[in-house]
């Protein structure tokens, strides 16, 4: 598929980063305000789909040079390892821990294993959505 | 409001069923989409509507709406997306291989059991 | 895990490495490696002999499914040890024989030995398990391995037929056995045989006693090829001869015998005599029927198969009649001789029948045929085989001095004493037992002679033989020679067995008796048994010499009325019948199936709601209706109607998107920001996806003409109504407090979050999410696979 719309292309260059930033914000906000891995992941995929619509698959592949299938596997792996990791500490499967740390520049920050799990969800969602869109787009 | 929602849900289910019973595979896929909308609203309605604030810890003890149906629906939304995508591609590939999207022509025959 | 458990499971473990051995060491016959295992096991089991003789059983238990009272309890007692020795001993000889029988260049040896080892382990499991569920598991394993071994030459139609037949019949029996086991469990609350034996009185007075007994007997009879289930055994002869010798004569078919023997202490006390009559009656009739039918067979292995059926019936009848002894108490041991004879004949049968099968295999191997109409005169060509066959057949016919004679004499003794039992009407019609036994023995004598002289006597018909006959190679003769020597040794010195093996086994079957020394003697004086034997020999010789004159009576039995015919007619008609039934409502149209599903959905849900008075409407505590909500409501309705009415696919898709956005706005109104966000983004991506698909789909990928269909509309309206009613009742009914409060209270402490929905997703109900992303991943890979893997093209290419 090929789209030569100059306005769309110029716009999406800017909008892409705004959406990505927003999706990262959504992802990290998730535990406290609406958002999380699902929405964040979907939003990121939305940004990339915008690129796909504005340019074509080959260009997007050049910009993001990795296989989205791998993202699914990585995401699942992170989630399962996070969930199963608790077994190593002799607590039931899926037990999360969290604590507050003082990190330079950021100040008091809470770190949560649930965020790791959510990261896995994020990756799977991005991976699946883009795998689907990409394979359909490539199958001319 | 709940009564209104119940009627809406019933309407969505009825339309979805009608679409699912049709011959065109695309209409069936749209039917599944409507069915999942109906199901999501049904789950939400079960938990009671507008019974409190947004389910975020507010610290002052204001009651919040039931967060559990929302969590379930969130899961369901994403799954139904995946399923719809799979159906679409199935229809698309089926058309490519078999040259039809008419369910009556896609009937399994006695020969290939 | 004890050594005993490892011994039982070792064949399974060994089976795993057999394919590797076969692959790596092709030049050496795989059988040589396999041979080690049964020999080691045989020696291992031999060491238990002194302990068991002292009456000390060995019990080792490993917990398997404790919640269901299923433990893998391995137990060695007299009966189990006897069978274990038979299984491993005959197993060793059979493996040795198979090394020469199966060519390493032409046969799939890896498969053969894997199946054989599976069988060996399963059979050991059957005879050494105390827990009935474990026993049942191994029991079915023997059926499976038998199935595979019968179908070993699966390119032959008859092999597949025989395999299927044996599978259907024995698995039917296995299922029935499971039913019996469960009934026993209901009665006693345990699966352990020892504990059941201790609770006999509860069992015999329980109303489920008779059903349990019948179920268990069905299992035993079908496995041991008793009338009317025997029909699978002759067809099982399609298996390679080592298998026939092992499974279908020496061991597997005796699993039923084992089961009956094992269950005797539980069921023999039956006050109505069902056990004695059923086991004894079916056994004695099978003895007669098997021997009678053996005579008309022309295939060597066919004769041996019917002979096995008949001999199994003999052992079964002895066990049945012997069980009657328990009603006379420890002081009256007159009737226990039947049980002793059963155990003794069990051993003897394994020896002489094993050797005969091996000889049949040798003849098949060296001449290319097993048809007695083409064989003859092999006596001088194959002298060693002839000698073995001579010993085997004479033992089978019950002619002194071989071991078969001894057990046949004891068999007559047991049957004659039946008449003296003054219970269960044995005093009036019990005389049938010795009469049928004698007739059966006459036929046994006749077919034994046919087997021997039609093969080895007379003239050689070289032109009818596919191969030039010659004596078998030395290795092939080892196993049958050993078995034949045992026939002779046991014949002359039966008492080397009596105290070491027979007595402990009988004590297991009849724990209520203190067995005195068992002495088996050759000469009883001029007793009725002796006259019976003499009669058998004289009448048998006469019948053999006049064979051509009386075999016409077999034509009196029409072929159409045999059990085999019944099986052959029943099975295909069952298939076509069920096919026809399914075709009446399975049309192949997906719409029909969906219509069924939705109709049942309506019917079941509305019936339940009506019968349980589940419909409930609470008008209080309803949320108020605002203007926005009404507008959204209308938007959804309009969108949906557009989809229904639209003829353009683009319109439908955009309308679907509109409905989706309206739903996400509903989420906003209903205080669900997470849902609203997600739905919004998903809807966007979905529409993009739909449109993308359209971009590539051919133009004529059309929507059907939207013709209104009344049936579909009725079903749809029904579904809608039912769902509306459910929706109304569901928010009006609160049967128990919601679990949500827990999540609400614990979101901040200890879960450390503020957004409850997200905390539920990643923390409280993380499992849901984990599986959800797995499903999503599968869907994604499914899409990828559908598009990338073009199976049809691969087929063409």
Automatic annotation (TrEMBL), chain A:
<feature type="transmembrane region" description="Helical">
    <location>
        <begin position="68"/>
        <end position="91"/>
    </location>
</feature>
<feature type="domain" description="Na+/H+ antiporter MnhB subunit-related protein">
    <location>
        <begin position="7"/>
        <end position="131"/>
    </location>
</feature>
<feature type="transmembrane region" description="Helical">
    <location>
        <begin position="34"/>
        <end position="56"/>
    </location>
</feature>
<keyword id="KW-0812">Transmembrane</keyword>
<dbReference type="InterPro" id="IPR050622">
    <property type="entry name" value="CPA3_antiporter_subunitB"/>
</dbReference>
<feature type="transmembrane region" description="Helical">
    <location>
        <begin position="111"/>
        <end position="133"/>
    </location>
</feature>
<dbReference type="Pfam" id="PF04039">
    <property type="entry name" value="MnhB"/>
</dbReference>
<comment type="similarity">
    <text>Belongs to the CPA3 antiporters (TC 2.A.63) subunit B family.</text>
</comment>
<feature type="transmembrane region" description="Helical">
    <location>
        <begin position="7"/>
        <end position="28"/>
    </location>
</feature>
<keyword id="KW-0472">Membrane</keyword>
<keyword id="KW-1133">Transmembrane helix</keyword>
<dbReference type="GO" id="GO:0005886">
    <property type="term" value="C:plasma membrane"/>
</dbReference>
<protein>
    <submittedName>
        <fullName>Na(+)/H(+) antiporter subunit B</fullName>
    </submittedName>
</protein>
<keyword id="KW-1003">Cell membrane</keyword>
<dbReference type="InterPro" id="IPR007182">
    <property type="entry name" value="MnhB"/>
</dbReference>
UniProtKB/TrEMBL annotation, chain B:
<dbReference type="Pfam" id="PF00420">
    <property type="entry name" value="Oxidored_q2"/>
</dbReference>
<keyword id="KW-1003">Cell membrane</keyword>
<keyword id="KW-0812">Transmembrane</keyword>
<dbReference type="InterPro" id="IPR050601">
    <property type="entry name" value="CPA3_antiporter_subunitC"/>
</dbReference>
<dbReference type="GO" id="GO:0005886">
    <property type="term" value="C:plasma membrane"/>
</dbReference>
<keyword id="KW-0472">Membrane</keyword>
<protein>
    <submittedName>
        <fullName>Na(+)/H(+) antiporter subunit C</fullName>
    </submittedName>
</protein>
<comment type="similarity">
    <text>Belongs to the CPA3 antiporters (TC 2.A.63) subunit C family.</text>
</comment>
<keyword id="KW-1133">Transmembrane helix</keyword>
<feature type="transmembrane region" description="Helical">
    <location>
        <begin position="71"/>
        <end position="92"/>
    </location>
</feature>
<dbReference type="InterPro" id="IPR039428">
    <property type="entry name" value="NUOK/Mnh_C1-like"/>
</dbReference>
From TrEMBL, chain C:
<feature type="transmembrane region" description="Helical">
    <location>
        <begin position="274"/>
        <end position="292"/>
    </location>
</feature>
<feature type="transmembrane region" description="Helical">
    <location>
        <begin position="710"/>
        <end position="731"/>
    </location>
</feature>
<feature type="transmembrane region" description="Helical">
    <location>
        <begin position="133"/>
        <end position="154"/>
    </location>
</feature>
<dbReference type="Pfam" id="PF20501">
    <property type="entry name" value="MbhE"/>
</dbReference>
<feature type="domain" description="NADH:quinone oxidoreductase/Mrp antiporter transmembrane">
    <location>
        <begin position="129"/>
        <end position="420"/>
    </location>
</feature>
<keyword id="KW-0472">Membrane</keyword>
<feature type="transmembrane region" description="Helical">
    <location>
        <begin position="334"/>
        <end position="363"/>
    </location>
</feature>
<feature type="transmembrane region" description="Helical">
    <location>
        <begin position="166"/>
        <end position="188"/>
    </location>
</feature>
<feature type="domain" description="MrpA C-terminal/MbhD">
    <location>
        <begin position="635"/>
        <end position="699"/>
    </location>
</feature>
<keyword id="KW-1003">Cell membrane</keyword>
<dbReference type="GO" id="GO:1902600">
    <property type="term" value="P:proton transmembrane transport"/>
</dbReference>
<feature type="transmembrane region" description="Helical">
    <location>
        <begin position="652"/>
        <end position="670"/>
    </location>
</feature>
<protein>
    <submittedName>
        <fullName>Na+/H+ antiporter subunit A</fullName>
    </submittedName>
</protein>
<keyword id="KW-0739">Sodium transport</keyword>
<dbReference type="InterPro" id="IPR050616">
    <property type="entry name" value="CPA3_Na-H_Antiporter_A"/>
</dbReference>
